[in-house]
Write a structure and sequence with these properties.
Layout lengths: L1 H19 L14 H13 L7 E5 L1 H4 L4 H4 L5 E5 L5 H6 L1 H4 L7 E5 L2 H5 L4 H18 L4 E5 L11 H15 L5 E4 L2 H4 L20 H11 L5
Parallel strand pairs: 1-2, 1-3, 3-4, 4-5
Helix pairs in contact: 1-9, 8-9
Amino acid sequence: MKSNSRLFLRSALLAAALVCSPVWAAEVTPSADWSEAMAAFAREDAAQPSPPGAVLFVGSSSIRLWSTLAADFPGTPVINRGFGGSHIADSVCHFERLVAPHHPRLVVFYAGTNDIASGKTPETVAADFRAFCERLHAARPETHIIYLSIQLSPSRWQMRDKFALANTYIAAFCAADPRRRFLDTNSSMLTPDGQARPELFQADQLHLSPAGYALWRRLVAPLLQ
């Protein structure tokens, strides 16, 4: 009980710091050279400009590999700007290419697992997401954002406590602004005894299987209306 209380207090204090700290207080640096991916996105933007009011999906490989977006959300213009292996900070640093060319009514964001796997703390992950939201709402004040919770994948199961803590921080941060929403996917991706459901993942037990994406679609679809 005391451990849970300390965790709650730590999460609450961090969330308050995220909300109240000055814009750009923390330095955000890219995790790798993403120039080729950004050049490919530039070509896509030039060949097919996005319509106003689309839903923009941004993040790491779980977004990039979501190849059925258009079929999963018929009648909704969707844009996929996922790039595999990326961290949240990469989407902040490349905001001008990923988001600025578009005028989405909603951003669906998934990243954070690579960040923690590379050694970043849950606090840094949450702060980087705050930086992304600051950039988004400075450029597009009316745009809403949904953060898909960091999934507790079997291959990174040993990191689950750090993933859960980052999710707690980000959920508290999202609750402070009606334009932000935290979507808990893990409660639907775990068995009743709290284990990851392996059928929702590919053979690598990291990336989502078709069944995993079908579950995400069911959870996300009601929020796109």
